[in-house]
Amino acid sequence: MVDLDREALQIAQQLVENISAGGNKDDKKIKELENQFTKSLGILTESGVYALFVYLLAKRKKEKRDGGAVNDPCHEILNGLFNALKGRGALCATLGLNDNIPSLGVKPEEGDAKKVLDWVAVQVGDLGRLLLLRDFLLRTFTYGRYCAAARKTELKAGSSEAGGGGVTP
Q1: Within-domain flag for 167
Q2: Which residue pairs, CB below 8 angstroms and at least 24 apart, start in 130-135?
Q3: What is the average pLDDT across 47-57?
Q4: pLDDT tens-place string over residues 95-142
Q5: Kindly report the CA angle at 46 between 44 and 52, in degrees rounded to 5?
Q6: What is the pLDDT of residue 161?
Q7: Which element (helix H / strand E) includes 84?
Q8: 51 and 134 in contact (C-beta within 8 Å)?
Q9: What residues have CB less than 8 Å from 44, skipping those under 6 apart?
């Protein structure tokens, strides 16, 4: 038996960790990730699972700015979610998801939207699976928002210690 609450928390933590992997201490990236989790929760709650994936696909950034990498939390959420599901066969079986989970590249590519939307359309075809997937995504994104907020707090605390920005007696 799979504990969906625990799995949602682990995937949320993994999504936040991937943003700050490699020693990246960028508070802006974490803040934007938290913001996207919040917006995604609103879309999921008000409009449903299919609308959530359409939103995440629509908000991806496809270009680089000033020659540097673009902070693209929507793509990272999609990519991280699909990668996490691929590695959890028991979770997919519990959610009733097929094992043909789309593979996304590191950055948005042509054809990604079709792969994702085709996959989601199959998954939301059954009401029981739809409701279970919706609940699981609500939990995952709620945990993601709180994990991002906690990471943001850690980064602020670390920068005030390192920068000497604290009050001295």
Answers
A1: no
A2: 130/48, 130/49, 132/95, 132/96, 133/49, 133/95, 133/96, 133/97, 134/44, 134/48, 134/49, 135/4
A3: 95
A4: 998 878 988 877 788 888 999 999 999 888 889 999 999 999 999 999
A5: 30
A6: 63
A7: helix 73-86
A8: no
A9: 51, 52, 134, 137, 138, 141
Q: Rounded distance, CA 49 to CA 138, Å?
A: 10
Q: Which tokens is 84 given? A: 């996490």
What does the block give as tokens for 100?
């043909």
Q: What is the phi/psi pair of residue 24, to 5°?
A: -70, 120
Q: Is 94 within a domain?
A: yes
Which residue range(s) make up the domain with 130?
Answer: 4-61+69-156
pLDDT(35) > 60: yes
- In this prediction, residues 20-46 reach a mean pLDDT of 84
- Total number of domains in the chain: 1
- The CATH number of the domain where 49 resides is what? 1.10.520
Distance CA 47, CA 41 (A): 10
**Which H or E run includes 99?**
none
3-state DSSP assignment of residue 65: strand
Structure tokens at 34: 């938290």
Regarding pTM above 0.90, the answer is no
Q: Is 68 exposed, middle or buried (0-12, 13-18, 19+ CB in 10 A)?
A: exposed
